[in-house]
Every structure is written in structure tokens, then in C-alpha cells.
Amino acid sequence: MLRYLTAGESHGESMTVILDGMPSGLRVDNGLLKSELKMRQSFYGRGKRMKIEPDIARISSGLRKGVTIGSPISILIRNKDFSIDSLAFITKPRPGHADLAGAMKYGLKDIRSVLERSSARDTVSRVAIGALCKQLLMEFDIDILSHVVIVGGVIADTSDLSFKKIRSNASKSPVNCADGAASKRMIEEIDRARLEKDTLGGVFEIIVKGVPVGLGSYSQSDRRLNARLCGALSSIQAVKAVEVGAGFDYALSRGSEAHDEIFYSRAKGFYRSTNRAGGIEGGMSNGEDIVLRACMKPIPTLMSPLSTVDTKNKKAARATVERSDVCAVGSCGVVGEAAVAIEIANAFLEKFGGDSLQEIKRNHAGYLKQLRKF
Looking at the whole model, is its pTM more than 0.70? Predict the structure, then answer.
């Protein structure tokens, strides 16, 4: 079982994470770790903080000669903007943020203490863990990607895109969108929002390819793979809705139109010609691509702030203005990939449990042989 714990504040000395449960024998690719952290910072609409922080991850335990040894892995990412003790006292909570509820919950007069930990800066830790989980899944030919499908009302055309094409097109796009025409319009919307001192939200899609049948279980609610994946995605800052496969479109169709008919051939085994279920049926992976979509709300820190109440004197005021992004949907997709990678890796280890990569590969190979005989 994979477990992790993160620590650190947005402008504190560092972001720290400990990952427990990673099997021994996995050679860690530092290049992939660096690349994932860079991707989180890269897309159009991000703010000045992304240009300040190098986000260099230092693994200080759990490896020997670059290979996991089964003990807890600790990762440290230092903040270049380490200024937490000199930052201004805040009493004007931002609507849509954790500011007011957090201050009331913890009895904090200075809202700064809330936003420092509730900040999306913490997602750098999850991306680092996700990079390690991705490397584990790659050993079993499981691949994960994300791409933006909506920003500021601009909807990308995803009706005829293969996994390979999505990866190629989205990786070249400033907003992580596989549709070039939509990508251009999204950039225009982001520029317009910046000029108007506003922010934009949107929707990103995550696709997981190569997941075998049977991850998760119908036996208990907390073992259902869809519940675990939706929970992981909805725990990301600013994500307000998640859907699996056809999602809310199910409400617009009849049962005869909604479900994926099952076929069989000697070459493929059991398969489906459609994937409305998004690769999950009865809380378990069914062998098709897992498809998830998440909606990120517009960032609640506005350069033209909304109305609020000053907690010090209870008078009407304008909300605090903090350095922030205009749009971070593409980057949120990268965080979403990490969140999904962690949950898929966890379900994978539960299914094929072992303390070493070699042992897990043996169990995995035996299960695939069993499936072929079904």
C-alpha cells in the first residue's frame, strides 16, 4: 500500500513529501521527475511565481545508487521565495478560497497562516510523488496523459483524436490542448481575462492506457476504483467536479444508448467497441482506457478583487490581492495526472502485491496468463 504525507507552506523554506510503500528494484529516472515538475509550471496563463521557483526535487532517502530499496522515500523541494515571516498580515478573506473558513476553524487572526498551506503550491509535492508512481506503472506498460478540453467557454474538438495524437498535439500546445484552433482561441480568452484583471477556469481530461481488467473492487465502497480516482481529483485545489467516461451525459441518454456492448475475438479476447463507461464498471477497471474529466473553477485570487468583510473590524472591504495566475487548467491537468497515477499505482500494488519489482512482475504475468485462459 502506498501512503504519502506532504508538508510545507507556499512561502516557507521548502515543500517536503514522504512516500511509503514503493517496492524495491525500481530505477528512478530523475529526468522524468524534473520534466513533470517543469510541466506543472509551463502552460499559458501562469503567474510570476513560476518564473521564480526552479522546483528542483532532491530525493534524500529510499534510494541506493538510484534504485528504490523498499524504505520510505523522502523528497525535498526548496522554495526560492522563502519569505513567510516577513509577509503582510491579512484580514480580508478572498471569496472562493479557504481564507475565511480556515481562519475560523483554526482560530487564526492572520489569514496569511491559512493561505500559506492551502495554496496550490502544495501540488508540487503531489507531482513529484506522481512522477515516481508513473515510473512504476511504465514498467507494466501503463501510460497516463492529460489535455485541456475547455477554457473560458472555448471547447476543443476531441471527437477524432487517438491517444498518440493527443499526446503529440497537447505537448506542443501552450495551453495543453490537442486542438490547435481551440488552443489559439483559449490563449485569446486568457489574454482578455488578464487585461480585465479576471481569471478563467475550464475542464481537463485524463486518459490512462494499458490498465488491466480488475483493479479496484465492487466488494466495498472504499475499494471502488472510480470513487478513489474521483476523490483524488476532487482533492486538488480549485477542482469542483469530476466525471468518469460519459459522466453527466448519461442523464441525456437511454440505457440502450448508454452502455458499451461486449464482443469477443481470439486475437483481442473480450472487448468493447465504445467506451462510455470510461474504462470502469462496477468499481473495477474493465480493460478499456480509463477516461476522467475534471472541472477547475476560475482562480479565486483576482487582480480586481471581489467584495468581502474585514475580519478585524467587520466592515465591508475588497478582498486581499495576492500574486496569482490568470488560468492554470493545463497545469491542473498535470497535477491530475499525478493524482491518478498515485491511485492507479496503489490499486495495482493491492492487486499484484509484492515487496520488490521482480515479485510484482511475476504476479502480474501470472494474472495476465489467467485472463487469457478465461
Answer: yes
